[in-house]
Every structure is written in C-alpha cells, then in structure tokens.
Write a structure and sequence with these properties.
It is a single chain. By secondary structure, the protein is an alpha/beta fold. The chain contains 13 helices and 11 strands. It has helices at residues 2-41, 93-102, 109-115, 122-134, 139-156, 161-176, 221-234, 249-261, 276-290, 306-321, 339-352, 370-378, 399-406, and strands spanning 53-55, 189-190, 206-207, 209-214, 239-244, 266-268, 294-299, 326-334, 356-360, 382-386, 394-396. It has a 9-stranded mixed sheet, with helices on both faces. It has a two-stranded antiparallel ribbon with strand order 2-3. The N and C termini lie far apart (110 Å).
Length: 409
C-alpha cells in the first residue's frame, strides 16, 4: 500500500507542477496582450506599437573628492542639470563672410579680375562662364548672369573697379534672390478638436511647430538638428527632439547628447530598427502634452530608391499630422557635393514636400554657387547654412552678407 502511494506521488507531482506552470504562463500572456492592446489603442493607424521613450537631459555627475580635500556640499542632482547657453544666432553669418573673403573665392575674385580688363574678348566671357560653372552656380543661372553682364558692359561701358563690383554684386544678389521668405515657422499653432471646436477644458490649446529634417546620411543631418535646437534655445524657445532615425545605431545617442547639452529632452526608441513613424508620433505627442514651442524630428538618411523613401517619409508625415500639423520640412545638403547633391535633393523634394534648405560645410568653400543652383532647382529658399564644426556654427542665411563675402567685402 505504501509503495502504491509513493508511486502515485512520484507520477502525479510533476504533472501538478506542469499544470500550475502552464496556468501562470497563460496568465502572463493574457496580461501582456492586454497591456499591448492598451498601449496601442490610442496610436493612429499606420504606426507600429514600438513606442518612443522620453529621455530627460542627463544631470551632470559630481566630481569625486580628492583624498584629504575639504568636504564641500554636493550638488542637488534632483534639480535640472547645468546646461550650456548657446550663442545668439544674430550676426553669425558675418563669420561666414570673413571666411569666404579669406578663401579667395573664385566666384568673386576671379570674376572681378576678368570684368576689370580694358577689353573683354569672347575668351574672357568663356572664362567667366567657366568660373561660374566651377563654383556650382549651374548652367542656367550662369548663362543668365553672363547675358546680364554683357548687356551692362556693352550699354554702360563699365570699367572702373568700383562700378564693376557694384554691377556684379547687383547681378549675384538677384540670382540669390533676397525676396524669398527665409524665416523658420517655429511658432505654436492654435489647436482644435477633430470637429473644429475649441479643445476641451484641461486639453492643450496649442500645438507645437513640428519641423521634420530629411537628407541622406553624411550631410551632417543629425548634427544639424542638434545645432538647430541650440539656435531655438538661444531664441528662448522650448524644444523636444525626436530621434526617428532608428536605423543608424549612433543617431539617437548623438541626438540625445546634443539635447542634454542645452537641457532639451529626446524621445527615442530603446531598440535599433524600430518604426520611425511611431517614434516621431510619440515625440510630437510629448511636445503637445508638455506645451513646448517646437518639436524637431530627425529622420533616417537612407536613399535606396524613390519608392522606399516615399513610403517611409509618407508614413511619418501621415502619422505626425494626426497629432499636429507639419510646420517645416528642412532638407540638409552638403555644399561640397555640388551637382551630386542636387540629384539627391530632387528625390527628397519630390517625396517630402521640402519647405527650406540647410546647406552644411559652406565655410570657406569655393563652391558657394550651390546656393543659387539649389534654390533654382528646387524652388525653395536656403534658410540655414553651416559655417564650421563648432556647436554654434549654424546661421540663418542672409543673401546680402553671403554675396558680400563672395566678393571679398
């Protein structure tokens, strides 16, 4: 009898344990499914369930005490960390003008040298056009400038250096087009309910300006987002960053570092390859709930084919605009890539609804004519230019200061 009981226990206990374990696993699975359903219920159709995580600016770490040093009161790390104060953006382009002047840009110096000759031959005019083309002005604008200069030289007989400089300045400025609106739309907009009525009590009354930043990798796109955050902070704006470039492992870390330096939080994914649209949506929703002025969204810079790019950027745009309207779509271009950069720009302009250009690596380059070419090609203005490697080397584009820099003024 005792043997029978012992046998039953040996056989039955494992079965009981297995049944209990299965019950626990089923319970956990149901709980997980329920949590997943709750987390995705409010997410718009088209965005994956991969949520972005809000990362606050990291507090500065306290320095370790030296042996025998006098004990000092440690900083309160529960408070906001000390942050950098970015330099004002006003006047930054003066530095670019100085750098262009020192670089001896052929677009200014060589043009003036040729135009000041006593008699201009056809070879001289060909030299002028070649100089413009080498500076990436583009065939169409170069031809227009040469025709205008020919007319003025023939009709007015311009020869004096001061008159030649004034004439060339006028024509270059016309090509750069100072009449274009180069302001950034960074003001919050009134928020309305889905039926057009005013928001309910307790809901946000405004939506932040949403700036989507696009461009291929290698142009300095993520760095530009970080520098633009500094420009906005210097202007007194509140900002949230969205790290929607989820395919490049270092992009989110890089953006988070930029944000921490000026006290700006970043919304990012906890894993590589997450849905960019979901991260962008969460960044905008965070901006709305916090009542910030601007949400800057960094996107992936892959340029595999137009169809894939269109699908990805189209999805991001659709998901974002269900929470807040897009204010700007900025295309970042490397000024040193010339006509190759224009080929990339055409694709992005077709699929992303670009509203402005950011030209990086423009400091001291002889390729300043790309400003003219890209505006003519895309029909949108250059709004910002990168002046160098420093954290505050991003400036609003000023046509007159730029042309004066090319001419060495």
């Amino acid at each position: 009898m005792d043997n029978d009981i012992l046998t039953a226990l040996i056989v039955g206990v494992p079965s009981i344990i297995a049944i209990a374990t299965a019950a626990v696993l089923v319970g956990r699975r149901r709980s997980t499914d329920s949590d997943h359903e709750a987390a995705t219920r409010s997410r718009p159709e088209g965005a994956s369930s991969s949520t972005g995580t809000l990362v606050e600016p990291r507090p500065a770490e306290a320095e370790p005490e030296a042996p025998g040093a006098e004990v000092e009161e440690l900083p309160d790390l529960s408070q906001a960390p000390p942050v950098e104060t970015p330099a004002p953006a006003t006047g930054r382009l003066a530095r670019l003008r100085d750098r262009l002047s020192r670089s001896g840009s052929p677009l200014g110096a060589r043009l003036l040298t040729v135009l000041s000759r006593d008699h201009l031959t056809e070879d001289d005019w060909d030299e002028l056009e070649e100089t413009l083309l080498l500076a990436d002005v583009g065939a169409g604008p170069s031809g227009e400038l040469i025709d205008a200069l020919r007319t003025q030289v023939r009709v007015q007989g311009v020869r004096e250096p001061a008159h030649v400089r004034a004439m060339l300045r006028e024509q270059l400025l016309a090509l750069v087009d100072p009449s274009l609106d180069r302001s950034l739309a960074t003001a919050p907009t009134p928020r309305a309910a889905a039926d057009g009525a005013a928001p309910a009590e307790g809901e946000p009354s405004t939506s932040p300006a949403v700036v989507l930043v696009v461009g291929v990798n290698g142009t300095g796109k993520t760095t530009t987002v970080g520098k633009l955050a500094r420009v906005l902070v210097a202007e007194g704006r509140t900002v949230v960053l969205g790290a929607a470039d989820t395919f490049r492992a270092a992009a989110a870390d890089q953006l988070e570092t930029w944000g921490s330096r000026v006290g700006v939080p970043t919304v990012r994914s906890e894993r590589d390859g997450a849905d960019p649209a979901a991260v962008a949506f969460d960044a905008v929703r965070t901006g709305v709930s916090r009542g910030v002025d601007v949400v800057l969204v960094d996107t992936a810079g892959r340029l595999q084919n137009k169809a894939g790019l269109m699908d990805e950027l189209g999805k991001i745009t659709r998901v974002i605009t269900r929470e807040a309207p897009l204010s700007e779509v900025l295309l970042v271009l490397d000024a040193t890539t010339g006509q190759n950069g224009l080929n990339q720009a055409r694709v992005f302009a077709e699929v992303a609804g670009v509203t402005g250009i950011v030209l990086t690596k423009l400091d001291g380059t002889a390729k300043g004519g790309i400003v003219i070419a890209v505006q003519r090609e895309l029909g949108v203005p250059v709004k910002l230019v990168g002046l160098g490697e420093g954290p505050d080397d991003l400036a609003p584009f000023d046509p007159e200061a730029f042309v004066d820099g090319l001419l060495g003024d």
